[in-house]
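Handout for the seminar on molecular recognition.
Each group receives one record of this type.
Step one: identify the two inputs.
Step two: read the structure output and locate the region that could contact flavin-adenine dinucleotide.
Step three: write two sentences on what you found, then compare them with the reference statements printed after the record.
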Amino acid sequence: MAFKGGIILSLNAMNRILEVDEPNLQVFCEPGVVHAQLNAALKPRGILFPPDPGSTKMATVGGMASTNAAGMRAVKYGPTGAWVLGLDVVLPDGSLIETGSAGSRAKQSSAGLELTKLFVGAEGTLGIITRLRLKLMPIPPARAIVTALFDDLESAGRAVQETFAAGVSPSAIEILDERCIRAINRYRPGMDLPPVEAMLLFEVDGNPPGVRWDAEKVAGVVRPLAHKVEWSDEPQRIAALWEARSLVGAAIGALRPGSNRAYCGEDICVPVSRIPETLREIQEIGKRYRIPIATYGHIAGGNLHPGHLIDASNPDEIRRVLQVADEIHALALRMNGTITGEHGVGAVRSPYMRHEHGLALEAMRQIKEALDPKGIMNPAKLFPN
Ligand SMILES: Cc1cc2nc3c(=O)[nH]c(=O)nc-3n(C[C@H](O)[C@H](O)[C@H](O)COP(=O)(O)OP(=O)(O)OC[C@H]3O[C@@H](n4cnc5c(N)ncnc54)[C@H](O)[C@@H]3O)c2cc1C
């Protein structure tokens, strides 16, 4: 959205994978390469780029780097930023720089300021990424999923903590709340998910015996807290469970036919220990403003996606949902969390940046002014004005 006018660049046509450097486990690509296409091209070589956003079929690697996108497996593998080794960036004055050491194929460096990190998550406010050098890893040979159903949110929150305390590092833990479960059942009647307050999907990956050990361990730890627990390492069952999870974004609409999902206050991240109280408070906020909210998310990292359903033609509902977003952002900060776990700031969240960062926001502004003194790169985003 060009709030101040200007030129919008579409980099979709810059979609070439330039080189897969297999021995050094890295890939050079243009920013418009779509995430799913990158991993499809790498799969026959047995390697992958592990960040895994739900938007895999449309997210570009340039956009993922620019928002520091995370996704389901970030708890084990980290967000996109952990996998960016270097970037070619066109700066606002037209000069082209290469971050991560010019011509380097090394996987690490401590030579100076980490400029790559500066452009990761900058949402295009500091320059345009024209090439990325991304780190890769071998595809884990096995996966399993543990499914657990909980009668109350608190037990689901405790199950996450106890899994880590038991020494297991799942590659993903996803939560669906009671409304999401209802929504999936309405959207896909064959799914028949039971009506419980929360469902968790734990994924473990690695070598086959290790995966079975991990899955049994998670099931054993979670069983005393859950209504029902089962695990499977059968690829078809795993695919079916991930399908249920992937439907949720679209399915939520089924809770209120004809409604629109409001993307504000939809991406908070809180400490894992505070997830149950955060989930309860989100429900209270929804009740207070009479807006139905269904919440799902990457619970292992504390990233929650409350989905607010409104009638977008009703100005009163728009007014109320903006109040909901205000309250949810304030809640995230009160819980010692952040207003955005993975989607980025853009324009919608810029008013909350001062509250989240305090004086550190001024340091960010100084960097912005040093690199982009005329303010031509993605103006009116990220910084409040
Ligand atoms: C259905 C759905 C599910 C999602 N699930 C997840 C999820 O699980 N995890 C997650 O992290 N995110 C998720 N997202 C949001 C996700 O962050 C974005 O989809 C994706 O990372 C952005 O990529 P994009 O190519 O769409 O970028 P865009 O939306 O086009 O751009 C994002 C920002 O980056 C800037 N930008 C883009 N390319 C460049 C470049 N080359 N140089 C400089 N700046 C650039 C843009 O100006 C903009 O500010 C989801 C989105 C949807 C719609």
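Reference statements: The first strand starts at residue 17 and ends at 21. The radius of gyration is 21 Å.
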